[in-house]
Write a structure and sequence with these properties.
The complex is a heterodimer of chains A (124) and B (231).
Chain A (H helix, E strand, L loop, with lengths): L2 H23 L5 H19 L1 H10 L5 H51 L8
Chain B lengths: L2 E7 L6 H11 L4 E7 L5 H8 L3 E4 L4 H15 L4 E4 L11 H9 L4 E5 L10 H17 L11 E4 H9 L7 H9 L4 E5 L14 H16 L12
Parallel strand pairs in B: 1-2, 1-4, 2-3, 5-7
Antiparallel strand pairs in B: 4-6, 5-6
The chains are: A mainly alpha (124), B alpha/beta (231).
Chain lengths: 124, 231
């Protein structure tokens, strides 16, 4: 790995961390989610500062090339995260649906009681 | 001083009657509201049948969202203080008076603490509590003896701040964050009972996850947050 490439990696991972921290600071992110991204950014920084670690893990897993380990590791982590996000998204969609129906049903109930109360029926 | 007791309840059909009846019979000086957090059991039905003061959430929001609903209500109705109170019968209302008294000395938050004068037992759960205490002390320089106590009282200023902001769950990490920001927090000795009936949400793996989340949040994330005070 050339020095320039290493410096680019370090700069990129530090910038990523800074960006994530900034968004947390502006409270655009819930803490539950912030924890994952902060740990993720931390791993990026550690890997870029100490590439020997990657070589070590590569040997431990019996793989040939460090780059393979990197790809395997990050694809797997991101895949898991994506899957969990999909689950959260489904839950969320379901909740929004329930809420919308609840509001609509309440509105309907309100109309029905006001009609029973002798008011004029409302035009749709 | 107008005080509202907020009782978030998720699947507490076995306990809610006992808790609310006790408040109504012996502590009617305080207003209370049950926040049913989208329970799948008959918690809401029991409250309606018995005529309890109830806010019924149509979906499950989790403790933070449910409690915040109560605080929004307290904020709109102009309450001076709000108390977080468990629906499972662990908390004893006889200690509310001393907590309010303490708050009137000028504190933002008063925690009903099990360990002001009494010693912490050496159980696994208390190890977690100790870890959170240490993390809080490391980041704020202040000691909170019972950070995981769920019996807390908030003054008007805190009600507004909790009601209108994101990431203000009623949890130890928020306490630590506010301490760091200069909020004043006191602890008052209380006794607590065991949960009366039903199952606790916190099993072992959930407890471990909870601890991890709290520690990471206190040690890492709270340092970067920017405060938005409510005037």
């Amino acid at each position: 790995m050339t020095l320039v490439f290493r410096l680019i990696l370090i700069a990129a991972s530090l910038l990523t961390t800074y960006y994530i921290l900034k968004r947390i600071r502006q409270s655009k992110l819930q803490i539950e989610y912030a924890i994952f991204w902060l740990v993720f950014a931390g791993i990026l920084v550690v890997f870029s500062l100490f590439p020997e670690l990657i070589a070590l893990f590569t040997r431990m897993m019996g793989m040939q090339l460090p780059v393979n380990f990197i790809f395997l590791f990050f694809i797997f982590v991101l895949m898991l995260k994506l899957f969990l996000t999909t689950i959260e998204l489904s839950t969320l969609e379901n909740k929004v649906k329930d809420l919308t129906q609840e509001v609509a049903l309440l509105e309907r109930e309100r109309q029905e009681t006001s009609i029973e109360g002798g008011d004029k029926p409302q035009e749709p | 001083m107008k005080c509202l007791i907020i009782i978030p309840a998720f699947n507490e059909e076995k306990n809610i009657e006992h808790v609310v009846e006790n408040l109504q019979a012996n502590y009617s000086a305080y207003d209370y509201v049950v926040i049913n957090d989208g329970s799948s059991d008959s918690t809401a039905a029991i409250c309606r049948k018995r005529g309890y003061s109830l806010i019924d959430l149509p979906v499950n929001l989790g403790l933070a969202g449910a409690f915040q609903t109560g605080l929004k209500y307290a904020y709109r109705k102009g309450y001076d203080c709000a108390l977080q109170f468990d629906a499972d019968g662990q908390h004893r209302p006889e200690f509310i008076a001393s907590m309010i008294e303490k708050m009137q000395e000028g504190y933002d938050i008063v925690i009903g603490s099990r360990f002001v004068t009494e010693k912490k037992p050496g159980s696994l759960r208390m190890l977690g509590s100790n870890l959170i205490s240490v993390a809080t002390w490391m980041t704020t320089g202040k000691k909170v003896k019972d950070p995981t106590s769920g019996m807390r009282i908030f003054n008007r200023k805190m009600i507004g701040e909790f009601a209108l902001n994101m990431n203000y769950g009623p949890e130890p990490d928020t306490i630590s964050y506010l301490l760091k920001q200069g909020a004043t927090i006191a602890e008052v000795q209380v006794r607590m009972d065991e949960r009366q009936a039903g199952e606790s949400y916190l099993n072992l793996s959930r407890s471990v996850m909870y601890m991890m989340r709290m520690l990471l949040s206190i040690l890492l994330i709270q340092n970067f947050r920017k405060r938005r005070e409510v005037k």
